[in-house]
């Protein structure tokens, strides 16, 4: 029985039964009915966290599909693309490009499954909600801890990258921790808006930033021509352990799925999530394959990871200048996801979710 059939059976079973008791007893009977279907755990709520927004001060379901597509690009596509040319240098250009394409298609399919799951169970707003459907309270708590830690670590990685970039740009004696604290404050300020629609506006700047930074790096490596044209279709005698690192870098370049449920929850039409997904994945796969192949062609087997290290120092500094927005905004998006989950979990089912100045 697939997800749609399971959802339709649960709805039909609750509608066909008559009940003469209290509303509370009726709701309990509905939850028990859901639990009887293949051991399915009842959802945490009958409706999603953002339902009944008419006249609310804060309205969440306001994003068009392209807002979400751009937001997904900003959350997923960042400086990690500059690690892919070295993946091609280790694996060879043919298996490397095949891995980028194949793993991108797998990421697209799994993202589509997440979107379909959300349509069947509209009450889920995050991965922890999905964990509760699968394994009850234990599943929710395990997924909560895992999701928050992952998002914190990703945000921390971007804060660290900002500190490294500022050290490279300024050649100053200022401690890296000071630069990291500055970025932390900026991320906190930019992550304050309640809805992702405001963050998606920043995502447009992030996308432009990474495109410009990568093309500057590409031009710099093309001018340097470390070992231009010295490429291999397939690199022979590559051990499993050595080839695993590049493949994991490619997988990491597509790992934005933790945000998909939350992003879909704020769409005007949740069914349009597929448009946003295909928009994002189409651009990501094409961008990854093109940039990695061109940089590998000009850098050859000497290309570094990240590829900025293969350019002359002046070009590296210029590229870092333009990469600053995407470094900051990618951290903002992931931090905002973690904060939004905590906020919704605290106030889900209350009017506080839709109030501009929540009070206890």
The CATH homologous superfamily of the largest domain is named Hydantoin permease
Q: What is the CATH class of the largest domain?
A: Mainly Alpha
Number of domains: 2
User: What characterizes the major β-sheet?
Assistant: none
Report the C-alpha radius of gyration, rounded: 23 Å
- CATH topology grouping of the largest domain: Hydantoin permease
Count of DSSP-assigned helices: 12
Keywords:
single chain, 360 residues, mainly alpha, Hydantoin permease, 0% strand, L-amino acid transmembrane transporter activity, Amino acid transporter transmembrane domain-containing protein, transmembrane helix
Written description of the protein model:
The chain is mostly helical and 360 residues long. The protein has 2 domains: 1-40, no CATH class; 61-349, Hydantoin permease. The protein contains 12 helices and no strands. It has helices at residues 3-16, 23-36, 65-76, 84-91, 93-120, 127-170, 176-190, 196-224, 240-252, 260-265, 273-299, 313-347. It is globular, with a radius of gyration of 23 Å. Residues 63-311 form the Amino acid transporter transmembrane domain.
Short structural summary:
With 360 residues, this protein is mostly helical.
SSE arrangement:
Elements (H helix, E strand, L loop, with lengths): L2 H14 L6 H14 L28 H12 L7 H8 L1 H28 L6 H44 L5 H15 L5 H29 L15 H13 L7 H6 L7 H27 L13 H35 L13
Helix pairs in contact: 1-5, 3-8, 3-11, 3-12, 4-5, 4-9, 4-11, 5-9, 5-11, 6-7, 6-12, 7-12, 8-11, 8-12
């Amino acid at each position: 029985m697939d997800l749609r059939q399971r959802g339709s059976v649960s709805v039909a079973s609750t509608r066909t039964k008559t009940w003469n008791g209290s509303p509370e007893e009726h709701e309990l009977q509905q939850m028990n009915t859901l639990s009887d279907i293949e051991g399915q755990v009842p959802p945490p709520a009958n409706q999603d966290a953002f339902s009944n927004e008419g006249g609310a001060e804060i309205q969440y379901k306001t994003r068009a599909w392209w807002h979400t597509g751009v937001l997904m690009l900003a959350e997923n596509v960042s400086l990690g693309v500059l690690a892919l040319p070295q993946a091609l240098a280790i694996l060879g250009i043919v298996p490397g490009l095949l891995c980028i394409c194949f793993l991108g298609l797998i990421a697209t399919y799994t993202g589509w499954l997440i979107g379909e799951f959300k349509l069947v169970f509209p009450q889920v707003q995050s991965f922890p909600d999905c964990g509760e459907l699968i394994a009850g309270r234990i599943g929710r708590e395990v997924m909560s801890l895992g999701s928050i830690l992952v998002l914190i670590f990703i945000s921390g990685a971007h804060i660290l990258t900002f500190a490294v970039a500022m050290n490279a740009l300024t050649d100053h004696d200022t401690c890296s921790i000071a630069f990291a604290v500055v970025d932390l404050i900026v991320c906190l300020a930019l992550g304050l808006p309640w809805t992702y629609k405001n963050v998606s506006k920043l995502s447009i700047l992030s996308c432009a930033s990474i495109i410009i930074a990568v093309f500057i790096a590409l031009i710099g490596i093309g001018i340097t021509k470390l070992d231009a044209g010295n490429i291999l279709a397939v690199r022979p005698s590559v051990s499993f352990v050595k080839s695993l690192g590049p493949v994991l870098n490619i997988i990491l370049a597509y790992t934005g799925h933790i945000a998909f449920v939350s992003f879909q929850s704020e769409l005007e039409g949740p069914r349009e999530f597929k448009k946003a997904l295909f928009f994002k994945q189409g651009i990501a796969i094409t961008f990854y394959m093109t940039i990695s192949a061109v940089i590998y062609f000009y850098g050859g087997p000497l290309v570094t990871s990240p590829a900025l290290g293969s350019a002359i120092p002046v070009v590296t500094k210029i590229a870092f200048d333009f990469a600053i927005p995407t470094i900051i905004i990618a951290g903002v998006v992931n931090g905002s996801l973690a904060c939004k989950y905590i906020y919704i979990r605290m106030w889900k089912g209350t009017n506080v979710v839709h109030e501009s100045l929540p009070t206890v």
